[in-house]
Amino acid sequence: MNFNQFKSIYPSAFLTDVSKNDQAFLTFPYQNKWINFDENQLTVSEKKLLYLIFNQDITMQNLETPQSKWYQFLIEDNPSLPIEKGIYRVVQFDITKKDTRFDKKLWLSSFKSFFKDVQEAFFIDDHYGLLIHRYSGFSAAQEETIGILQTLDDDFSTKTSGYIGQYWPLSLDFKQFFKEEQTIFLNQLQKSKQVFSLSDVALSYYASEALSKSPIIQQLKKDLASHPEIKELITAIWLNQGNISLAAKYLYIHRNTLQYRLDRFFEEFGFSLKDRNDLLLCYLLTI
């Protein structure tokens, strides 16, 4: 295809003499120049098609880690702030399942397109990365972020988890806050739902050390450990805030089946998972 044909399909496309180092655009070598496409105007399928058209070798690109100012500030030991001021948060993501054709650059550009005021997004290793965006009166809620990742998982045949960080004013303390959020995310990655935030895991994360010192708690944990299926039961009730119908759907069982298991649990252990205090205690026993 010549440039005019591309232009007729993508009116915002343009040519440059050098590669445009701007993550808002997809850029490909084209007839001794570079052709640029606005990513916000491309669907996931269109991006895949453009990569095929230009026969772009993205293997090496995917292995490169962008050395942006945010990367240097958060991951490396560079003390310089990446930008002068503002309020920002970090969304962490971890792709635990992907096929051999997975395109990191395409996935990342698609992920960014769902958020407003994105400052930077990059992979740190083969599966884990960060998205930083600025507070501007709008922020994707947890349910929206779950929907975003589910959409991408469907499109890319992946399985992804995410952590929504708190908004913090940009200062030298920002890196310290991020490091703690990073520790929380990696610690709770296999213990929580697909997308979670501090309020979802604060209790289990910060209480775990104190609980480990209690002989009573340790004995109760030992009793529950002899019934591995009970942890799944307690977790389902906890994550669904005591709603039996939602918990049954979470477990893929009938509501009556779940009710029977709750009755059996009460008979054996003396705790009612319908009671908020009992449920809290039992949840603490599973962490």
From TrEMBL:
Tell me where on the tree of life, at the top rank, the source sits: Bacteria
Question: What Gene3D superfamilies does this protein's entry cite?
Answer: PucR C-terminal helix-turn-helix domain
Q: Name one Pfam family in it.
A: HTH_30
| InterPro entries in alphabetical order | CdaR-like_regulators, Homeodomain-like_sf, PucR_C-HTH_dom, PucR_C-HTH_sf
Under which name does UniProt file this protein?
PucR C-terminal helix-turn-helix domain-containing protein
Residues covered by the PucR C-terminal helix-turn-helix domain: 239-284
